[in-house]
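Hi everyone, sorry if this is the wrong subforum. Our group has a chain we'd like a structural model of before ordering constructs, and none of us has done structure prediction before. Sequence below.
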Amino acid sequence: MVRSARALLVVVLVIASALLVPAVPATAGTAWEYPEFPYPATTYQEPFRGQFHFSSQSGWTNDPNGLVYANGLYHFFYQHNPHGLEWDTMHWGHATSPDLVHWTQKPVALEPGVHPGILFSGGGVVDRDNTSGLKTGPLDPIVVFSNTDGVSIFYSNDNGRSFQAYDGGRKQIEIPAESRDPKVVWDAARHQWAMVVWSNRGGNGVDVYTSPDLLHWTFASRYAADWLFECPDLFPLDGGRWVLTSATGEYVVGTFDGKAFHTDRPQPKKMNLGTTYAGGTFYAAETFTGSPDGRVVQMAWQGGNRGSSWTGNATFPVALGLVDSPDGPRITRTPVAELSSLRADGRTWRNETVRAGGPNPFAGILADTYEITATFDVASATAGQFGFALHSRSDGSADRTVAYDRAAGTLDGKPLPPTGGEVTMRLLVDRGQLEIFDGTGQFSIADNVNFDSAAVSQGIRLFATGGQVRLKNATFTRLSTSWGTAQSTLQSNLAGPWHAAGGSWTDVGGGKQAQVTGDGFYLSASTAGDADYQGDVRLGTARAAGLTFRATADGAGYTVNVDTSGVVKLWRPGRDIATYPTAVSADGTYHLRVRTAGSRIQVWLNHGTTPVIDATDDAYASGRFGANAYQGSATVQNLNTGPAGFTAFTSGPWTAKGGTWTTTPDGLRASSSGDGFYLSDRTGSDFTYEGDVSVTNGVAAGLTFRAIADGAGYTANVDTGGVVKLWRPGRDIATYPTPIVEGRTYHLKVQTAGTRIRVWLGDGATPVIDATDTAYAAGRFGLNAYGGNTTAQHLTIS
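Answer:
Right subforum, don't worry. Here is the predicted structure as tokens:
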């Protein structure tokens, strides 16, 4: 993360960006709106938008951060301003991929105002063995490192959906000098973690730290070098050798003894020959940790790509290797094999002679995004230069030329001596990117090129000048787009691809939002006959919204929805099967659950124990799962098959009073800026009430009891200010000081007997609060959330 050397370049980029979109200052977020998804809809078809190179859905992108493979997905975090096209208050953007090729934009991962510190560049790991003790559920924690002049730690137990600050975000490493960009790696030989951090302790270099648990770090050594500025990476490669890199792509190869890095060849080499400065075409490269196949995979920042709604992109992922050469070991960079998933039609050539002024073997091919691999016989060549004119036109012009100069021994102006009398060039051509490799992986250039995608500009010309050259073999393959294959904000265990049948469906922070004039459907590829299916619907301006099941590809099937006319309705085309009268409010959020068994269809509303609809119909025996909206805008979320995600005592439908309450497979989730309540219809006076609550991000979560219909009553909660609190409107009755950690689940138990109220925390035998109060003698049971995101689960009354 450049803060000084980058300044001039940032100014240039800001000026260029300002010509496209007015600058909008980046802003700090709030816990109850986290995670933020501020991105306008896009088809990723804008001019110069890479089709297989990652770019943010919108906003500014720079350094890759915390690249990890976790819980079945590759996670690409990156320095990001989601609110404008220039560098500004840094967030951590987030995207995921199952295969390093098909990326899906996700909500912001680290957000100023929610996560403390300066959120500059850093690294990440997956703590598979839970060495940190941070794991709270079935998924392996993702642990990332950021901040400046020291290191803070953040972690996620939900596969990157949300992050908590460890120890309140306090720096776990204090560095008495300018520093940034921590990168962490597992040192398997010594069963420890190792970290390198760039610091200016009298000059450029990295401080090396070690840790047994990712939380407690010990300074081990310093490696100083003038070239070693910013965004260092340290990783093992090819057995016992280790590689140390800098932001400019310079590197040295040596050994790591568990405390210090050593090399007998301190003169660095460059792994990429693009413009390796901040904002150039190759900067701040970082490797993934935890790759399942043991590969070391790398991506870098390309700052030169700019469009109408984004600035910057990432290089295509490459697998790194090491080869020995006369001047020592050299890194090889090879595009990951998963690129093949994008390959469409192609052509091949063998033993073609290319002459100056002669026919073009690639004549007739029009292509926008593609790959070319070509091997030339240099030993017998007489041409002074030969290569490709890319996105060429009938007037002889082209957007970019890649040529080998035989006399200079250069490819695209960079040294590349022939191997066995041959030169191979491999070109990845995207709408705003060009990457050039040789046949060995030792040569690579990353570039940004604004290719004209108009049909008249999609030619390819293979040329030679001043003689001829033999093309030994070549392949051309079209590369399809990698976008649009997964869901950005819709949480669901249903299989894709999804498709809309009526209306428009876009990603918003709360899930998938519909805008329809009549009936519109959003349908998954998952089908079933008998199943349990549930989800959350928020009406917005829509007249109705709900769950669709056993449907055809156009949405014809069963739908159960909430309708602002005042009913829950089960219907299919041509028939309203059953209705349940209930108050339905505009902009309300409702949880629906459906169970089908043959012709029987049961519907539950808002976690009520008894179905509100129990009907039979035999029109549709099986079909797709999806969602429906009618006449207006509505949002759906958490569309899941399987058992209910929230377990609680017997009750009728629950009612929300403040905040938004939704249901994930792990429990009931709330987002509330102030006090929000979720209330059952169960009431009591003397009882034992208990359950599990957690503050994901924010202030407090707890159990509400003896409450009236608006939530006024008693609440016992856990508060991240460091207390368990018993309170009612107008009075904090009692508090118990104890650390309350975001993301940690706490078990609360409340017991009432007349005016006496006791509260237990965890499995403690003794109540932490034992108080009296006379304000409320009886009332409803429910839940409370305050100032953030919370979860609740496993509620019981006895």
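For your construct planning: The mean pLDDT is 95. The chain is about 0% helix and 50% strand.
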